[in-house]
Amino acid sequence: MADFSQEQCNAWKRRHFLGAAAGVATVGAASGLLPQVARSQPRKITLAWSQASFCQVPVPIALERGFFTQNGLDVEVLNWGGAADQLLEALATGKAEVGVGLIHRWIKPLEAGLDVKIVGSVHGGCLRLVGVKSAGVTTDLRTLKGKVIGVSDLNSPAKQFYGIHLAKKGVDIDKDIEWRVFPADLLDVAVKKGEIHAIADGDPNLYLIEKRNPGVFAELGNSATGEYAEKICCVLGAGAKFVREDRKSAAAVVRALAQASNYVAENPNESAKIFARYTPKFEVSDLQRLIAELTYKHHPHGGRLQDEVQAFAADFREAGILKKSTDPVRFAHHITQDVLS
């Protein structure tokens, strides 16, 4: 098991400082201004992603708008339906070279030492927390003390993310809150039965729940606003062996997805139409509204990415999700890799 304790932390901090002092490329450079990968034949790679997650729309955009091809890649996408730790294991063992997922779900498995590097990011904020008004839950997080929050699983990104917020408000997330698991599309049924008093989940599911139940919920948190509005949400991971052996291709994936994220930010309506072909159960108008609300212009890499991972690690340790012995600086340095420098 990996050890990210305080021991030798000063050496890690010195390296981190020197790396930052050397300077990193701007987000604009990562978005396509850097030279593209040049090779006679496209590099074939497998990218794992979740087709059910609308926030990962840059993946099909990169495919259909040719950003992967422009960067010398022949990408096969794998629609991943398994758990986050299984996806990370697939990257570590080379079953897929790269994958996209939520930082909140990856932090804990990566603490265990899986040989995976976070090399890029796709966007900021896509998680929300809503309370049931009739249950006495208001926009004050402290009104959740003694209440039951419904989640899709106990390692869900929304549970982990709002665990941070509740801990910052002095709420003990293990003693003051009960977390109860229900299938995502049945969380509003649990509300109607009085089994839960709030829902922590992501869109589009939570958006559709509110659409079916107008006036029932009060929003307590939205990761696209406030303190975390300009922080990462979905990130790009790569097998460490792949990064070591083919750094140029890893950089090409980072660059292509950054270009795709910028395209989504500038063309949310067209992006929604493209993504609707992958998730036909969602109306294009709903996807257009949701995509327009996310921060696709925020997709840092390099030093800034490492800083944001470090901030999340510190928050997760404070909330008791990571071990108290895990040092955020050393941890972030170990699990991130700047492939564009």
Structure description:
- By secondary structure, the chain is an alpha/beta fold.
- It has 15 helices and ten strands.
- The strands form two sheets. A five-stranded mixed β-sheet has the order 2-1-3-10-4.
- α7 links the parallel β6 and β7.
- α12 (268-276) crosses α13.
- The two termini are 29 Å apart.
In spatial order, strands of the major sheet run 2-1-3-10-4
What is the number of helices? 15
Residues in helix, %: 40-55%
Please count the beta strands (DSSP E, at least 2 residues each). Answer: 10
Biggest sheet character: 5 strands, mixed
Strand content bin: 15-25%
Order of helices and strands: HHEHHEHEHEEEHEHEHEEHHHHHH
The low-pLDDT segments are 8-35
Which SSEs are present, and which pair or pack?
Layout: H1 9-22, H2 27-33, E1 43-49, H3 58-64, H4 67-70, E2 73-79, H5 84-92, E3 98-102, H6 103-111, E4 116-124, E5 127-132, E6 148-151, H7 157-168, E7 178-181, H8 187-192, E8 198-202, H9 205-212, E9 217-222, E10 232-239, H10 240-245, H11 247-266, H12 268-276, H13 284-293, H14 302-318, H15 328-335
Parallel strand pairs: 1-2, 1-3, 6-7, 6-8
Antiparallel strand pairs: 3-10, 4-10, 5-8, 5-9
